[in-house]
Amino acid sequence: MKIRSSAIAAVLFLSAPGVAFAPIKNAHKVSFTRLFADEKAVRQELEEKAALVDAKDEISYRSNGEEKLSMSSLKISKEAKKKIERATKPRAYPLFLAEKGAIILEDTIASFSKKHSATPTGEQKERIVILGTGWGSAAFLKEIDTNMYDVTVISPRNFFLFTPMLAGASVGTVEYRSITESVREINRKANYLEGTATEIEPKTKTIKCESVICEGNSCEIKDFTVEYDRLIVTVGAQTNTYGIPGVREYCCYLKQIEDARRIRTAIVNLFERANLPGLTDDETKAILTFAVIGAGPTGVEFASELRDFIEQDGPKYYPKLLKFVRIKVIEASPTILAPFDNSLQDEAIKQLTREVKTKDPEIQKLLPEKFKLTELLLNKGVSEVTANRILLNDGTDIPYGLAVWAAGNGPLPVTLSLIDALGEGEQSEAQSIARGRVAVDPWLRTLGGNGNIFSFGDCCCMASNQLPATAQVASQQGEYLARLFSQNYNMSPGEDPVDGMLLPPSADPNRSKSLSENIAGFACQADFAAPFQFLNLGILAYTGGGSALAQLQLTPAEQSRYKGTGKIGFALWRSVYISKQVSWRNRVLVFVDWTKTLIFGRDITRL
Questions:
Q1: Are 449 and 439 spatial neighbours (Cβ–Cβ below 8 Å)?
Q2: How many CB atoms lie within 10 A of CB 313?
Q3: Which residues lie below 8 Å from residue 454, measured CB to CB, with a gap of 6+?
Q4: Which of helix, strand or coil describes residue 180?
Q5: Of 436, 332, 340, 417, nearest to 376 (Cα)?
Q6: How high is the pLDDT of residue 486?
Q7: What are the backbone dihedrals phi and psi of residue 291, each rounded to the nearest 5 degrees, phi first?
Q8: For the purposes of burial, counting CB atoms within 10 Å of the CB of 230, is it exposed (0-12), middle (13-18) or buried (19 or more)?
Q9: For the sheet containing 402-405, what is the strand order?
Q10: Position 526 confidence tier, pLDDT thresholds 50, 70, 90
Q11: Least CB-packed of 31, 309, 350, 542 within 10 Å?
């Protein structure tokens, strides 16, 4: 408590030198003029000393108060950190499943009730800008409440693509339009801008984009800028060539519809070219050698679909050329399909390298004895690719007609641009783990983005818990984040008073929590939003000839995996793929394509 200056003045006056009362016997020697002069000087001195004491007292008071405030903040920070550490641990699996079940129940009820949040009159909607139209973006668009937010999607591609079926589309098992869905159809209330994001400026909350505009035979690039309140970066990744010479110039990829169309045209071109007269057997064999570089799910499924085309449709159209066809799967590691269990990897190798059997005995006679289409080249790295040869690191060179590169992912330029724009701090420190991907916290908020920038899918990395770059992860992340937005969580509630860490998203106090939120809150023992947790449902891969691998994850324990192969795996693979289509239109079209291929075969017409 501050001491009053008048009281201090009185004390100092009584104790000041020369103010003590003189003995009575000397009183007559003191003149009144001297007394008043001395009193004036003493009063001035007392006022100066009182002001000095007041200042010291104020400093002492403030110092003690700040110390108490600092200690209080430190205590709050420690308690908050304990809560966050506890909440970010994986939730108990039974409770996590109960939470997911509650979400399904809530979504089912909401689909019948058709209730949406209403924006108050005169209040401007918050602007959410989404970069990309992949799995995460599609899941977000299906879940977000557009009555609460003004949603804009920016992408050079105006459709969602079911990427796991690109291998089938590249040989004609399914048609391109059967596995695509317009972004405008996924969410008709969201705005779409056709363009490519080139630069993100977090300080001004703007995105620089460019769009290719064609009129007749002339095209030009138009630049435009988009402002945002919340930005969602889900641009995916591009093919990583690892700097190997010739890959970008001579190999085909399997990322986009254009890639599948290019491969499908090239396959028919090679067969027609090999059928021309005047070629030697070695030249024909080189033309009909298909090299698949990378033995992950993409590479194995493409090799399997290509084998189906050659086995099922080759005898009808190119019976004399079958004996020259070779499929070579090149893999730098000692095995294929690394995410799968060892027993399933062995089954995949068995299926890929099985002998060719045709229904027509006359055509079977044209083939060499124990003829195998597919050859696995394991522990073989590619050192260079030329126009007609693949050079391996052991000195071997393979002549080829078509090379498909399916060996890894790398960051897009806009992803690297965002990392640079976020500057020094949390984001740059996390790059030792993220390695060119956007580092995010457990709530998918970009580190260093102040709660305004979010990221999920292949372009992001959760520093505390790295997840596989799969469609399953991206779609769950998109659905999770859209749910937080639609439930009006405050995604940037402030920073920790001690270390400046962004606090977890807080719930809207004016809204009662749903059943799934209460279950998640109980599991986390926290009053803020539960962090993202991935529910691993398993993985699938087609291995050709009506067989597939299915590794279903019943619980997190490895012992609880269900493994399906052969016809059972094939039934699971097809049922999951058709159920995961984004619309009933896609489901019907895919089913019709499969039926058409079974009855009539694949179309080899070049258009």
A1: no
A2: 17
A3: 230, 231, 232, 233, 440, 444, 445, 446, 481, 491
A4: strand
A5: 332
A6: 95
A7: -100, 125
A8: buried
A9: 374-378, 326-331, 289-293, 402-405
A10: confident
A11: 31
